[in-house]
Queue: 3 jobs
Job 1
Amino acid sequence: MKTFYVLFLASSMSLIVSCSKDDESTIVASGGWKVTLYSEDGKNSTSSFTGYTFDFKSNDVVTAVKNSEVITGLWKEVVDSGRTKFVLGFNKTGIFDGISEDWTLVSKSDTSIKLSHTSGNSSNIGVDILEFGR
């Protein structure tokens, strides 16, 4: 897992260097967010994140807090090849592996962030959906 985290950081930094940051990322970094939908290849796993509050800080750190448990990761909103990406990574196994991805930003407002991630090949394409709300 540490190898993944190091690779994630390295790839995120290369994205950050080669892409421009979206000025509207301040919307994300103001207040707590809850997962309102997490679907992996059509399987709804939203309940895995029940009770977690995500705080996207302006210094690119994200925390997920549930009771006394605090899970820390990194996030970055960038434009890559004309598409806004929401890069999210946690140094935690289990349910946080699934959301540690370079998500495509579908939409964003003061109350909602909608993300999608497509993986696989032409014969087996999977689409994951991650939505935050407050």
Job 2
Amino acid sequence: MAERPPIVLFVVVVVAVVGFIEIMNGLGWMGIGPFEPGLSKPTDLGKEFWDLLILAGGLMLIIIGLISIVIAILAYRGSSFARTILIIVLLLGVVGSLLSLWSTVAIVELVLCLVLLYILFRPDVKQYFGS
């Protein structure tokens, strides 16, 4: 395996921080869901349905965050699988941000995804991941 280029550490840190933010976001969703009275959206479906939906959304964000952290660890170790997953996720991020360009957050996401994709396709980074 080739020596780890320093720029790979940047990618790993960004992915790990995003994973941590997703976990915190999921915990926040779960906190305002069924455990906080008055924040549910009662409709014909009932309060319990919305509480369950918010709880499931929070759990999904926590799972995505944990997967992001695992991918960051694998990328740090030079796994070609991690690089492939990162490329797929970043391409989906580019498409998603292009579909919502009216948002400032989407523009920042687009720039970040494109920078990370550029890094992942640099020759020294490709060599590190064994691609």
Job 3
Amino acid sequence: MISIAMKRMLAGFVTGLLCLPFAQGRAAIPDGKEVFQRNCSVCHSVNPPPKSAPPVLPISGRYHMRFSTKSAGVAAMVAFMKAPSKQTSVIEPEAITRFGLMPPMTLGDAELNAVAGWFWDQGGSASGPGSGRGAGQGAGGCN
């Protein structure tokens, strides 16, 4: 006959096994900032001046100018990180000439989506060109 203590221990063990997939699923969602710090910060700074690649804020600003939703911007960023090309780049051609194209990232989809989401969250419409007094209308006094 199984004692009450043994039944409780067995119930706790079974409950733990049933909850394990949920705990692992939560732990499996990577943090975009951590992915950036581990894999991207070697080449990309967050703010100017640049390291060996364009900084995060101008890149994020460019994605915000090109894409109206975070999901579209993140999807485009992930596609670019998997297979960088001049045709899919959002940065200026002069920046590609200066820095070259980045190598393809060999991270998993979850990490790519996390870091792309973090990149997106760093900027906005005020991060790219047109953030001065002229708001892109040529009235900023730089003509």
